[in-house]
Structure prediction request, 427 residues.
Amino acid sequence: MAPITPEQDAKLQTLIRRIKEKPLKTGKRLIFTQYADTARYLFENLNAHCAESELEVIFSGDKSKIRVVGRFAPRANPEYKFQAGDTELNTVIATDVLSEGLNLQDCDKIINYDLHWNPVRLIQRFGRIDRIGSDHDVVYGFNFLPETGIERNLGLRQKLHNRIQDIHDTIGEDSAILDSTEQLNEEAMYAIYEKKGGNLSLFEDEEEEFVDLNDAEEILRLLRKENSAEYDRIASLRDGIRAAKPNSAQKGMYVFCQADRYQQLFLVDKSGETVSRDIPKVLGAIKCGPELKGEGLPAGYNAAVMRVMRQFAEEVKHREAEREHTVSLTHGQRYVLRELRVLFARTEDEDVKSQINVLERAFRAGNLTSAVKKELNLIRRNNLIGDSLLKNLIRLYNQHNIRDWLDRQKDREELPVPRIICSESLL
Prediction:
């Protein structure tokens, strides 16, 4: 382990001092760091200021994650059984091995000893304790921010900006992949790293409620545990179930569509336009308690639901077409397709271009016979290009009757059948 710098020592002393202060000195503390060496260093130095039996460190697979989590958050993980000699932990030091998929709601304080360059990591860390099942009215988050000089050298803000820009450049701000509720909010992202706690509200719309998918799953888990009969009744409901409820924040409807592996939630406004497909926003709009009485369905409701399903059916067709072009290709296929694109760009003969289009579609297929794939790999090894490549591919196409095979394959393949799982009018 590298020698500790004066800055690191000062940072440690600040942490020790803060742990002794309110509200840190009571309750449970989860200290995150990005590096295993730092985690080990904190554990060794905090032992003098915490009861050793109440402090643990985990930074790799050398310790049981289940045991550490069970001792640290026994109320949130009742399935864990304490072993002989086990004591309940009040403080855990961890790398991001504990940042995803765990219930740590017994804890009410997270300390980020160093900041990860990816803001999603910080959000995941806080998500371990700020979730359904917590008994705490308030959860605390403390960030150790880089000193000004260190920030100048690290350029944390610029790195974050570059990462966001990379996402913009790759996906595009106006891409259908991200709807308006999912656009990257740089100002809110930067607020995590700066002393602008008020700006964290930029992540939220104060007039809307959001329900994380993990929280929704927790609600269902608790329902199954506490009221199994009601859970079974809901699970056995037929497809196409309809409902209506008053909703002041969003008027319109919610529709859940599915076609085999494709699933989509739609939040639609009164005019029939899709407002959002963002799961937390949609779940927030439909969330209600068992005491809320249902309303009657409005006029034209079924026709509006069918319009959403037709839109979903078109998207399924588009996704299936895209899937055909993203199958796993062999090295021989990749070589042939690359050289065909080069040849297409070089030729001005429309007949040749038409031939290339047919061949590209034929040799992009994911389930070509092993004999054809073997021939394509041979073409790659021989580095065939230009007219020689074209002649050999035409020979393969005719010799193996690929056109007839593709036609039969197309006839056998049927698009997944879209259906409505459930829908609800928001009045």
